[in-house]
Write a structure and sequence with these properties.
Elements lengths: L4 H12 L4 E4 L1 H8 L7 E4 L3 H7 L4 E6 L4 E6 L2 E7 L1 E3 L11 E3 L3 H5 L9 E4 L3 E4 L3 H6 L2 E2 L5 H7 L2 H13 L2 E2 L1 H10 L8 H12 L4 H7 L1 H4 L4 H6 L13 H11 L4 H9 L4 H4 L1 E2 L5 E2 L3 H15 L4 H13 L8 H11 L1 H16 L8 H17 L11 H6 L6 H15 L7 H10 L3
Parallel strand pairs: 2-5, 10-11
Antiparallel strand pairs: 1-2, 1-8, 3-4, 4-5, 6-7, 8-9, 12-13
Length: about 450
Amino acid sequence: MKLSNGAIKAISMLKNAGYEAYAVGGCVRDAIMGNDINDFDITTSATPAEMQEVFKNEKTFETGIKHGTITLVHEKENVEITTYRVDGEYEDNRHPKSVEFTKKLENDLKRRDFTMNAIVYNENEGYIDLFGGIEDIKNKKIRAIGNPADRFTEDALRILRAIRFASKLGFEIEESTKKAMLDCKHLLHNISEERIAAEINKFLLGKNVKNAILENYEILGEIIPEIKNMHNFDQKNDWHIYDVLTHTAVVVESTPPVPHLRLAALLHDTGKIHTFTIDQNGIGHFYGHNDKSAEISEEYLNKYKYDNFTKERVYKLVKIHDTPIEPDKILIKKRINRIGQECFFDLIKIKRADNLAQNPSKVRLDIIDEIEKIAMDIVNENCFTLKSLAIKGDDLIANGFKQGKEVGFILNILLNEVIEEKLPNEKNALLNRAKKIQL
């Protein structure tokens, strides 16, 4: 394992002072897997006071001194160093009431979540693996340390961390660990909304997200109840070859790994189970599911305290995801003007993914590609918003028009005629046309 300069310095200084010190956690796991490492965490037998003495001439800051963590700054690299510790009783399924420092590495490692995250390393001793984490990494298994129910009762967020790792790494969750996750899933209601949202965002970006959704829908249903009910929900429509949950999972996987896009993909059909009807021919329909899905999305996004951009963009994409768009330049201009350039291209991404998750005989990717190309040409021409219009309100006022509603009304008429290509986007032509408009 190749340690960073900061990690080498931290471990070396602690060992030279007579203490144990190792790289631990995700950096070790990623090194074993051959993945890039972004951050190095160090665990040590030195207490916080002893660490402060060791690093008294170095730049450090107290990250969480009460819990035994300081950060060493070395050549613009931040290295977190934490004392071996034993957690006291957990009172809220998330935080221990107390933390006790220990001199035994095993005591520190056995309180951690999964075997793959409890491997330590330094250059003198190599890997130390007390719980079979290396073997689990080789077998692509996520296994809780010790009694799985204890680990999830201590910290219920570990349930979502397991799903996130399954999605990101493509690992399977070991059977007894999965059973404990299901048994403890109700404890997620004790976790803060912000922490849940952060884990969901990371989980959605994983390369194995489709399988992670399908294998953990009951747990995800604790956060978004509709997800559980979408499982095995037959759409009874020849446009679809999947049940609603599988369709959704394929849409998420087919959407670019951007948080707001994958959130929109996850939520886009949540309203289907509430709007399902069957006609006299036995064909299923979901009239109004866009609006219902948008309503559910809004409730979820507000509950889990997402930022305003995410709330607004996801709500809009879900609400309009099934709105028909044809490869017509003027209609596309109007749509871009109405929802904005960035939102329009996000909508195209969602529509393409949605199409890929339908009956292959109904796929219309060529039309979606054509719409995207027309939209790109329109953007390059830059004439679909008031901002891009060659005439401004000041120009109208200078020519005798009254400031206020009259100016805005005329500008919108001019823009609409430019969009419909009835009028060139040229200042003189626009001004002459403005003078002929009867209010």
